[in-house]
Each structure stands twice: as C-alpha cells, then as structure tokens.
Amino acid sequence: MAMSSRATNAPGGRGDFGRRPFAYAGKEMKVYFRDAQVLFFSLALPLVLVVLMVATFGGTSRFHTDAYVVNLDRGGLAGAELVTRLTAVPELTVETLSEEEATQRLADANIYNVVFIPEDFTAKLTSGETPRLVLRQRGMGNTEGQIVNSFAAGLAREIAGEYLVSRKVGQTLAAMGRPLSQAVVDAKVGSLFETAKADPPVLVEEQAVGVRSDPVAIFLPGLVTMFTLFAVTLGSVAIVEERKKGTMERLMTTRLTRVELLAGTWLGSAGRGAVQVVFLFGLAWAAFRIFTPVSFLSVVVVALAGVLSISAVGLIIAAISRTPDQANWTGVFLTMIMSFLGGSFFDIAATKGTLAFLSRLTYNFWANDALRRLIVRGETLASPGVIRDLLVLMGIGAAGWLVALLLFRMRGDAK
To answer: What top-level class would CATH report for the domain 65-198?
Structure first.
C-alpha cells in the first residue's frame, strides 16, 4: 500500500496528471517572456495602434463639414450677416465663392451644395417683401450638404424674423404718435436680440445616454480581439515546430498524453493572451480612465473567455498544418478574415444580409459585441446580450477542443 501511494504521488506518476499540463504551460510562458520580439509584437504594437487610431479619428466624433456660399447681396447688411452667422456655427467651415466659380465646381462635381444669397436679399427684407434664398445642389446633393442647407435656411429665417420685428416696432411707434427713424429702431431692436443671444432664455444640453463616443472606447475592443487572435493562433506554430523536430514524439513517449499536451499548449496560448488582455485594458484604464473597478473586471472576464475560446482554434491550426510556415500563414489569414468580418474596426452588430451572417461565424464578432456592450453601452455581465455572447464563445472553445482532438487522433500523434 505504501509503495502504491508513493508511485501515485511520485513525479511522473498518476498523481501528476493534473499538474503536467500546467507545467507544460509554464514552460511555454517562460519562452514567451524571454522572446523580446514576441513581447513587442503582442504588447507594444497594439498600444502604438491604439494611439495612432485615437490621433487619427479622435476629432471626428462631432459632425463637421464645409459650407460653400455665394453672396450676391453686395453691400447689403442682411447678406453679410447671414455669412457671419454661418461662419459662427462650430460645425461648419465656410468658404465664399464667386458665382462663376461655384457654378463650375458644381458642374465638375467638386462640390455638391452651394448657398446662393440673392442680390436683393437685404432690399426685400427692408421693404417687407419675402426674399428668396437659393440652395443649389448637384443631383440630390449629399448628407452634409443637406445639413448645411438646414443651417442656412434656419439662420435666414432668424434674420428675416428680426427684420420683421424691427419693422413692426417702428410701425407701432408711429401709430402711437411717437415715431422714430427706422435706423434708430433697428439699432435698439438689434441690441435686444444680441442681449438675448448672450443670455438665451432656453439652454440646450446634449446628453449621450448609455453609449460612449470617445474613440478609445470604440476602437479598443476590436484591437484587443484582433491581436489576441493573432498571437494565440500563431502559438500553434510551436506545436508544429515540435512535431517537425521530433520533440513531440519524444514527449509522447513519456507519461504525457495527447490530452495533456493539448491542454498544456492550450493553457500556454491562453496565458499569453491573458497577459495581452490585462496589459492593454489596464493601460487604457490608467491612461484614459474609461473603466471603473467593476467594469474593468467585467471586460477582463469577457476577454479571458474569448482567449480561452480562440486558443482552442489555435489547436486546430496546429493539427492541420504540416509545416511552421503553413501554421504561420494560416494564423495570419484567419486573423485578417475574422477581424474584417467580425467588426474589429467598426461595429457591425446592426448590419443585415450576407455580411451579418458571415460575421456571426467569427470569434471576433461575439467577443467584440460583448466588450462593446460593456465598454461603450455600459451594460454588465448580467445583461442578456453579454451572457449570450459568453455562451457562444464557450461553444466555440468546446467545439475547437473536440475538433482538435479528432484531428490529432487522425494524424496518429501517439496516445
């Protein structure tokens, strides 16, 4: 009995069954931390891409476009005032054109919408007539041009209203026997309108409910899933290299079983992905303050579930690849396809049709959807959508394990 107990607990005995995969994974992690190039690729390069994407797209979260104006009301106060007020709109960059230049650029399709202020704009407002504001566009114009047209029409009506009030005040004073020159009335009414603009009776406040718009929160999930996918799938190269060198055959002559070898490789790949996840999300939390302690733990849980899932896919790549180059390029191809179809760069959860169907066949879609629900929409791990995504990721991991075991058995890689 004593000898049986010692044999069971001796190194390499049956008692080591649960420890051998972790020992193998520990060896894989030591190799990972000793490789400076791999560390740079898996940690520093994603960080550089986050910074570049924030710098490139960080200023585009608010609408901004160009507005083209032709002011034919030369010398008219109302036409000049309309151009001034358009220029003051923070969402617009106004460029004034001559009539000939605007016509030519519209014909050449260089621009699609132009605001024409007619030459009698001020004269008609002063006389009480209704002026015309011409919004000329090429074809149906474009979305930005339609927004510019709305700004121009609204400001023109605002100026027309001020002229109307000023004229009515002058007429009322004359009817009361206290006539004043229209210039005096215009000046006084104009000053009242300026006072009202400086201290408006109604304040408009924009509030984003449940959705973050900062670029870090938007781009970070996709970059993390893409690079963890790339690093994890490339981990399959190690198994192929060991098979090619004969290391796997020697390992399989020991007490290490096929399941233990795959489990150790799976844990090693997942460990590398976990380092990436914690590093990138932790750095984002420290630098951009986009997490709370609870939300940080939530995104780490989801990301780790995704890493465990895709690590099983890495085993499939190792099983079907005959050379390290095949495993390498299969991992690169799989990463690019899944990242594109899975919405790693832009949220495609609301798309329909063929793209929607194909996207849901990828790991990236479910991982990105869960992370964006937590980071961008402010949901929790208990949200139905997040739970669904986690279940799908677990299903991908389980299916990957079953397929990998079957393929390794078909290859005849020992026991």
So the answer is: alpha beta
